[in-house]
Amino acid sequence: MKPEKEITIYDIAKQLGVSPATVSRALNNSPSISTSTRKRVNALAEKLGYRHNTFASSLRLQKTNTIGVILHELNSYFITSVLAGIEKIASEAKYNLIIVHSAENAALEIANARNLFHKRVDGVIASLSFDTEDISHFNQFQSKNIPVVFFDRVFENSESTKVIINNFQAGYDATSHLIQQGCRRIAHVTSSLKRNVYAERMRGYKQALLDNKLKFDEKLVIIDGFKEQDATRSAKHILSMKTLPDGLFITNDFCAAVIMQILKDAGVRVPEDIAIVGFNNDSIGKVVSPKLTTINYPGFEMGQVAAQSLINHLKGLWNINLTNTVVIKSELIIRESSLKSGKTA
């Protein structure tokens, strides 16, 4: 079936006996056009099925009022929280979002960046995939003065604008809490140390051990993914150890919940035998038994700060290049999974 002809402002102008310029101004609610004319134009436009050519307007104005968001995954409480924060600020400022995700793949991340570049987004908010080696694919935005704000997973030594938490301190606090509970053989379950978030949490873990005169043992570090099958593999690794750890610092709450259940099914008592601390403050931590001690990672606030920084720059209210890094506060939330003998400090 042949598609219907696209209705233009010239079609509307011809039927109403007015100029195309009048129709254009009326459709854009210009105060120079009378209320009655605006009503007539909009009524006929709706009747005829007129669609505003946003792309053409964007080319004329050299802006699209669109922000590209590159995520490393979508199936995550933290990421959905960040996205909610971004969407709130963007919506209030009348910006649209184009959301893409890399599925933890650098090649797809590069393709997504190129796609957003060709869609002429006004700015980009991004979190890097597991295996991203560099951020040269974001240089194309810089060449056109298109601002980019990175969040969560970033290259900390780059000059790019970043919104993060103090992952070193979070790792230090989580490990110190387990030590305060009497744990002396603490295993660390984490993921790709190429990413700043996991490398810095590991650094905090090691520093807490050092400060408390506990020896760091590489055999107690498990590096894997955070999906259910990955967590299952990590749990079996822990159970296979000749001497079980008495504490676990796991840098993902879902992974921690899966590991905790497998340990319990194997007869391990939590926290009496093994105390557990997770990370992110996902909702799952409040429904598992025992409830999960975790690090609160304020995703919604992180999304708000990233979006507001970008939009303020786009509006000329602030130059994001003046501030390389914004650090959002995180905190340890103590629940039953880590409390040996009822100790809280």
From TrEMBL:
Keywords: DNA-binding, Transcription, Transcription regulation. Residues 7-61 form the HTH lacI-type domain. GO terms for molecular function: DNA-binding transcription factor activity; transcription cis-regulatory region binding. The keyword RNA-binding does not apply. InterPro entries: HTH_LacI (IPR000843), LacI/GalR-like_sensor (IPR046335), Lambda_DNA-bd_dom_sf (IPR010982), Peripla_BP_I (IPR028082). Pfam families: LacI (PF00356), Peripla_BP_3 (PF13377). SUPFAM superfamilies: lambda repressor-like DNA-binding domains, Periplasmic binding protein-like I. The keyword Endoplasmic reticulum does not apply. PANTHER family: HTH-TYPE TRANSCRIPTIONAL REGULATOR GALS, LACI-RELATED TRANSCRIPTIONAL REPRESSOR. This is Transcriptional regulator, LacI family.
